[in-house]
Amino acid sequence: MKQLLLQKIQNKDIVVGVVGLGYVGLPLAVEKAKAGFKTIGFDVQEKKVELVNSGHNYIGDVVNEDLKEIVSKGMLSATTDFSFVKDVDFIAICVPTPLDVYQQPDISYVKSSTESIAKYLKKGSMVVLESTTYPGTTEELIKPLLEQGSGLKCGSDFYLGFSPERVDPGNLIYKTKNTPKVVGAIGEDALEVIAAMYRAVLESDVHTVSSPAIAEMEKILENTYRNINIGLINELAMLCHKMNINLWEVIDAAKTKPYGFQAFYPGPGLGGHCIPLDPYYLSWKAREYGFHTSMIESSMMINDKMPEYCMERAGDLLNRSKKALNGSNILVVGVAYKQDIDDYRESPALVLIDLLKGKGANVSFFDPYIPEYKHKGKLEKGEKNLTPALLEKADLVVVAAAHSQVDYELIQKHAKVIFDTKNAMKGVKNRNNIELL
Ligand SMILES: NC(=O)c1ccc[n+]([C@@H]2O[C@H](COP(=O)([O-])OP(=O)(O)OC[C@H]3O[C@@H](n4cnc5c(N)ncnc54)[C@H](O)[C@@H]3O)[C@@H](O)[C@H]2O)c1
Fold this sequence. Notes:
Layout: H1 2-10, E1 16-19, H2 25-34, E2 39-42, H3 46-53, H4 64-72, E3 76-79, E4 90-93, H5 108-120, E5 125-129, H6 137-150, E6 158-162, E7 181-185, H7 188-199, E8 206-209, H8 212-243, H9 247-254, H10 278-288, H11 294-320, E9 329-333, H12 348-358, E10 362-366, E11 372-375, E12 378-381, H13 388-393, E13 396-399, H14 408-414, E14 418-420, E15 434-436
Parallel strand pairs: 1-2, 1-4, 2-3, 4-5, 5-6, 7-8, 9-10, 9-13, 13-14, 14-15
Antiparallel strand pairs: 6-7, 11-12
Helix pairs in contact: 1-7, 5-6, 8-10, 8-11, 11-12
The structure holds nicotinamide-adenine-dinucleotide (NAD).
């Protein structure tokens, strides 16, 4: 099986299946198709399938023309029908791994997509989980589900591995194609073949590790490292405010050290589908071993407190001009979870807006990437343009994402008071009405 697959990879005679056509899956499907592998995308959302099949892009990191071209050449198609799995040799699973209401892993998407694959899995295929998850998922959950559902045996009938996705939406340098990839698999043959498949598509290094659990833990380490360092810097932001020290200037100074320091920045909280969620996958799994991941818990406590802390600071700012949150007009600029993207999943700005509204403030928002958002089942519409009149009407402007497309000079000129939680206005000279987090 190994030799045959290696030969097929070399001849580009492999049909690729990508399950889950979201922020991770669609760019991956596009890269595989661009590299000359016929690719079928699977999703449960009819709308996404229709968009892909008509060559319409909906993910910021995918180039519209690339998608159009590979679809028109028949190199990429999409479907909701999993029976097409029988035509596929290599399957990457890129479905969501969120948390449930108790902040515990919700592995239901991984389970249901694996069950759908198992029904049609053919002998001689490769399956790789790319979704971020707790160490052990591939061997303890995916392997038995695939074996039971297909009647095939892992290692002799199909190969199974884990390769974490590292996509950084909005990153202009590192994309799916040039970001190094880590691969772990069950058995040496599986590792060799799955790594060969990634090498055939990517420009970057493919780093192999000795088991799927190493690769699963490696991904959680990356994201926990970020989470904890952001927690540290958020805590320092609260301290520095009390000490009247500008933390942003402190970080700029620390950054001059050429080794041993990496800059992280404070903000109104954590957002996105990765950093605020993934460490909980590890803390949950750790409890199976009677182990408490205390650093993760501490950092989560700090990060989760940030929207509330920002609300308090907003209240203090209004207080200076004898105003209360209750009844004030507050304009939030930027509701995406980070700069220059249109993703608002888990965005702390939405939590902050809810908190401000809860105190009786009239909150409006402007985001050049997000004209409207849905939160807790409610559709919220944003301001279409950032105008002098809109800014002058606000008692306070809160900058909650550092989008580069925003006219910060205009904000400074027309806003009464500004609370800049991301140092987005660092380029603005006149700073008499700007307060930093
Ligand atoms: N977005 C990121 O920046 C990023 C970065 C690295 C890793 N990841 C990880 O990658 C995984 C996917 O994240 P994403 O951001 O692409 O999610 P997403 O929500 O953008 O996309 C997931 C897609 O899977 C589809 N889906 C759900 N259930 C399905 C099923 N049973 N069968 C087929 N399709 C199904 C959804 O309809 C959706 O289109 C997650 O585990 C995430 O943690 C995400």
